[in-house]
Design goal:
Layout (H helix, E strand, L loop, with lengths): L2 E5 L2 E4 L4 E8 L6 E8 L6 E6 L6 E3 L7 E6 L4 E6 L8 E9 L14 E2 L3 E6 L1
Parallel strand pairs: 2-11
Antiparallel strand pairs: 1-3, 3-8, 4-5, 4-9, 5-6, 7-8, 9-10, 9-11
Length: 126
């Protein structure tokens, strides 16, 4: 079992930056594909970015490409999401998720992820 705890959310003006962290415990972190998702009020939870077990592969949804960067430190059992040039439409609760993975391919479906954090609020004002 893996427990995930996000941190780093907050309020920022448009154009600003935030760095989210997700600390994992209770499992072998390097065995998990990691993803970041977000859920805005009244909307479904959507995939934002994913990273393979060793960090060699990343994938981003179009709305965040070029602005967000996902990374991981397996020695620290932590995955990060650096968010730059934030826009009001990035306002959401951000969740990290873990998927036991043997393929190395990044999965975007939320149903494929077995473990979730509690989420951290990101609010971007215009």
């Amino acid at each position: 079992q893996v427990q995930l705890v996000e941190s780093g959310g907050g309020w920022v003006q448009a154009g600003g930056s935030l760095r989210l962290s997700c600390a994992a415990s209770g499992g072998t972190f390097g065995n998990y594909l990691m993803g970041w998702f977000r859920q805005a009020p009244g909307k479904e939870r959507e995939f934002v970015a994913g990273i393979s077990r060793n960090g060699g592969r990343t994938y981003y949804k179009d709305p965040v490409k070029g602005r967000f960067t996902i990374s991981r430190d397996n020695a620290k059992n932590t995955v990060y999401l650096q968010m730059n040039s934030l826009k009001p439409e990035d306002t959401a609760v951000y969740y990290c998720a873990a998927r036991p993975d043997g393929t190395g391919y990044i999965v975007v479906s939320r149903d494929a992820y077995a473990y979730w954090g509690q989420g951290t609020q990101v609010t971007v004002s215009s």
